[in-house]
Amino acid sequence: MLGRPQGVRVWARTRPTDLRLGFRGLAGLVETEFHHDLKAGDVYLFVNRRCSSAKALLWDGSGLCIYAKKLVRRRFARLWRDASPGQPLRLTTVELNLFLEGVPPRRAPDGRGRRR
Q1: Are 78 and 113 in contact (CB under 8 A)?
Q2: How confident is the model at residue 7 (pLDDT cuts 50, 70, 90)?
Q3: So where are the chain's domains?
Q4: Contacts of range 28-35, beta carbons closer than 8 Å, 24 or more positions apart
Q5: Reduced to 3 states, what is the DSSP secondary structure of residue 104?
Q6: Is residue 11 within 8 Å of residue 42, measured between CB atoms?
Q7: DSSP code, position 43
Q8: What does pTM read for this prediction?
Q9: Which of 25, 37, 49, 110 could form a disulfide with 16 if both were Cys (CB 3.0 to 4.6 A apart)?
Q10: How far apart are CA 78 and CA 4, in angstroms?
Q11: How many CB atoms lie within 10 A of CB 84?
């Protein structure tokens, strides 16, 4: 997925995002809400309100890249359902790959979602 190594950090915004935003708009969200340096090589995931589309923003060493995906028959998981409001959600690269395939996240035995 995205040609990134296994050790890359993946961060997801825990609120719906207007995916009409491009490079500048998504980069602005990373800087103002995540307080991260875009050039660190992390992947930033954004999902629209209907959970039908997602974008991933990353620095590839020479510039910013945006990868976009729209699911036709399914919906992406609502990443903001079980997350702390306004706090970015950390995902593994495996979780990111599953998310982009439309696979719902695993639930903890108590039904509250993934434990952190």
Answers
A1: no
A2: confident
A3: 10-100
A4: 30/57, 33/86, 33/88, 34/88
A5: coil
A6: yes
A7: E
A8: 0.81
A9: 49
A10: 24
A11: 10
